[in-house]
Structure to design on (497 residues):
């Protein structure tokens, strides 16, 4: 076992972890950034780093022997297939009532997500993070996050004619004819590059259907934003394929952090320990919650408070498709990056992204991912029999989300004389109610932690990721996760170092 001492260790390299590592390093503090996924900097046999959505391979899934695609069926037929077990990029983590999709690798969820970079409406902020000063967030930290992430908006004039956004224009037309506002959604995709993809002057990425298993060109994941700035400080050591299993108080002060080094087939090749003065949990809502719940229950960190593991929500995610008339084709060329949504949050509790179905053929389907005001919250608990962490979410708890999404789509179907698709999530199954892309909570700000993410019970332990947010952000979450991390790390650097 190695013996090493660092001033700060960060667990996980998604949004929260990248913000923490960058700002600590800029303040002159050396950081060890530990990430259980791969670095994603080396091309595979096909010359590309990331696999295409339409042809998943070993790179696509985290330690599974069979794919588990969010859209499990196509034209009614199951499309999952066997793959070699590998430390791939997308984790479909199964709890009893829900599958939680998460990114794995240096860059976390930024590697696999749609890049939709949405700042919540100011009037909704009080219900998202009630203990946080909204004036500071909207004047300082949301702008800082948007700038750091490289957020931009599609050119509305180009959008009106681009072949690859035919599906979104159909979505806009149907929304507006039923009286719903259609709003453009900002994204971290390089919009200039998107226009060049449409013009066929550069290699295609969004227009080649890349999204769920990584994006080879135009998307500004953290690999193109925070991570190069982290590297430029020269103060951050990144350890990919290292998984944190334990954090305990060290005898001489600080914390002993246990790491397992993984091979790409997921076996443990070495066990190491590092001592850190301060430890930042940024393993994502699920990863941080699982670690904290386990460490409290097994006696490694018994003084964590009883709020640890509580307040988990799915951001109200629910998916559905609609079958359009023959005169409303959605296009065989679809950009995998959505750029618009239907806002019925105030009246119906739903914000629906007009999402692509990048199959390469005409499907006459309109596809939507709705974010809804689902009130249900779940809890993570330690299961001594299985030595693992359970989540008590139940599939039936999605019913409020379905009802809220129907506030939009029942009306559109009635107006257009159309019906729901029943062939995307199984046979005769309308609602994609078995999954979330947006896990939030489990170490809620002001409950498991103080108002800046300092974990109750221990000095020098922090949560700084989506686990802080109590279950819903009213829009896609990563801008809020980033902005909150920027706010908290600024305070922590000023007062705790
Ligand atoms: P995040 O999950 O990003 O990072 C945590 C990291 O910690 C991971 O890299 C993980 O491997 C690592 N880790 C976990 N446990 C560990 C351990 N024990 N040891 C070491 N490392 C560990 N959001 C949005 O705003 N707009 C969008 O368009 C989308 N679209 C979207 C699509 C898909 C398919 C997914 C899966 C998700 C999205 N999201 C999204 C959600 C968004 O990606 C998500 O909210 C953020 O990535 C969460 O950021 P965090 O910093 O909390 O953790």
């Amino acid at each position: 076992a190695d013996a090493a001492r660092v001033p700060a260790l960060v667990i996980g390299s998604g949004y929260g972890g990248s913000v923490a590592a960058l700002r600590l390093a800029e303040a002159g503090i050396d950081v060890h950034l530990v990430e259980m996924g791969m670095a994603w900097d080396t091309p595979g046999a096909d010359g590309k780093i990331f696999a295409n959505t339409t042809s998943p391979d070993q790179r696509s899934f985290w330690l599974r022997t069979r794919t588990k695609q969010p859209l499990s069926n196509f034209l009614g037929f199951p499309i999952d297939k066997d793959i070699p077990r590998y430390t791939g990029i997308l984790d479909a983590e199964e709890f009893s009532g829900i599958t939680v999709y998460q990114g794995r690798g240096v860059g976390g969820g930024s590697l696999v997500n749609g890049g939709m970079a949405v700042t919540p409406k100011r009037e909704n902020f009080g219900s998202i993070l009630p203990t946080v000063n909204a004036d500071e967030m909207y004047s300082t930290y949301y702008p800082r996050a948007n700038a750091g992430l490289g957020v931009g908006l599609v050119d509305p004039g180009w959008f009106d004619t681009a072949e690859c956004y035919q599906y979104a224009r159909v979505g806009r037309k149907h929304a507006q004819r039923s009286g719903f506002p259609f709003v453009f959604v900002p994204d971290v995709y390089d919009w200039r590059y998107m226009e060049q993809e449409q013009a066929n002057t550069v290699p295609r990425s969004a227009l080649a259907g890349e999204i769920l298993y990584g994006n080879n060109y135009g998307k500004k994941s953290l690999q193109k934003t925070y991570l190069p700035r982290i590297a430029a400080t020269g103060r951050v050591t990144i350890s990919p394929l290292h998984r944190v299993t334990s954090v305990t108080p060290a005898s001489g002060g600080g914390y002993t952090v246990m790491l397992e080094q993984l091979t790409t087939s997921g076996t443990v090749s070495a066990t190491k320990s590092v001592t850190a003065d301060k430890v930042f949990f940024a393993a994502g809502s699920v990863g941080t919650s699982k670690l904290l719940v386990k460490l409290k229950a097994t006696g490694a960190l018994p003084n964590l408070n009883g709020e640890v593991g509580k307040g988990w929500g799915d951001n109200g995610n629910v998916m559905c498709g609609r079958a359009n008339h023959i005169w409303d084709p959605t296009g065989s060329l679809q950009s995998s990056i959505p750029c618009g949504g239907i806002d019925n949050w105030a009246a119906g509790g739903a914000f629906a992204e007009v999402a692509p179905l990048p199959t390469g053929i005409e499907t006459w389907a309109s596809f939507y991912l709705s974010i809804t005001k689902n009130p249900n919250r779940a809890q993570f608990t330690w299961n001594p029999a299985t030595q693992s962490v359970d989540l008590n979410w139940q599939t039936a708890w999605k019913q409020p989300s379905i009802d809220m999404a129907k506030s939009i789509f029942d009306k559109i179907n009635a107006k257009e004389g159309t019906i729901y698709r029943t062939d995307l999530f199984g046979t005769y199954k309308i609602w994609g109610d078995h999954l979330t892309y947006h896990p939030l909570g489990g170490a809620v700000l002001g409950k498991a932690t103080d108002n800046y993410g300092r974990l109750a019970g221990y000095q020098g332990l922090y949560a700084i990721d989506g686990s802080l947010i109590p279950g819903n952000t009213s829009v896609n979450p990563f801008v809020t996760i980033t902005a909150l991390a920027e706010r908290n790390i600024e305070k922590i650097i000023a007062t705790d170092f």
Notes: The mean pLDDT is 97. The CA atoms of residues 233 and 462 lie 22 Å apart. The radius of gyration is 22 Å. Residues 11-16, 34-37, 101-105, 108-109, 112-116, 212, 243-244, 282-285, 287, 291, 437-438, 465-466, 476-478, 481 surround dihydroflavine-adenine dinucleotide (CB under 6 Å).
